[in-house]
Amino acid sequence: MTTMPGKVAVIGAGDIGCGWAALCASAGWPVTVFDATAQGLERAAAEVPRRTRALVALERATQGIVERGLLEFTQARSLLQAVQDAEWVIEAISEDAIAKQKLFGSIEQVAGPDTLLTSSSSGIPPAEIFARCRRQDRCLVAHPLNPTELIPLVEVVPAARTSAAAVVRTQEYLRALGRMPILLKKPIPGYVVGRITAAVWRQCIDLVLAAGPHLTYHLAAGDGGVTLFLQQLLGSFESWWGQLATWQRLEPEQQRALIQSIERAYKSNIEQLREARDRRLGAILRVLEQARTA
What we know:
Elements: E1 8-11, H1 15-26, E2 31-34, H2 38-57, H3 63-71, E3 73-75, H4 79-83, E4 88-91, H5 97-110, E5 116-119, H6 126-129, E6 139-144, E7 153-158, H7 164-176, E8 180-183, H8 193-209, H9 225-241, H10 252-266, H11 270-293
Parallel strand pairs: 1-2, 1-4, 2-3, 4-5, 5-6, 7-8
Antiparallel strand pairs: 6-7
């Protein structure tokens, strides 16, 4: 049985990094966040406690454990201060392979010999991320979904040189945090979630750019079931499949159109929408847990 980490270091104070820190703090684990910018550290100082305490309201954590974890939540002023004595280092910087390589090269110089190193990358092959590391046996990807502290699924993606012990240790850490680790046997670009998301997102963007209707089916085939559904609608679906977007590059004018359409529709309500999303995710998770234990 793997002993839970006495200290977790999260490198990067964006949405994913703050989510990881909130998740660890909500379990009562000591966690330290480091960011290369003062603004990032300032953001983490406010955002991590807010997101951690929000888990209590969403019935995803207990107040006593949350407050205990937040007492041991700190912001480091250097990479050395963050990584020193950490048993698990979580990288959560921007999705840039070169930047990640450089960071892990620096982390390896100051991390202890038994420290577990994971990347939060959403699709870069782990062999590329850890290319500068000498000890690749302790390195692998643990890709969370966003918001990290709420959605339990995490993709675990080992590299060719990752040890079985590091994989097991990562899975046990994640399960102790209430996560559902999904182990990928092959580190394909984009992993599984990223590839599915990319396909769906491209179609959603294409609908917006084409200004077409974005409707949900309200009627099914009734008593006829899937047999009647195929008889009546398969031809239509085959026609639509042939017209799906196939572009591979989002041109600057398309990027502007996408940004402007989102800002026009949601800019003034983004905080309320985020809070509503989190409440609904919490409710969905409670229902799923009740169904599993019924």
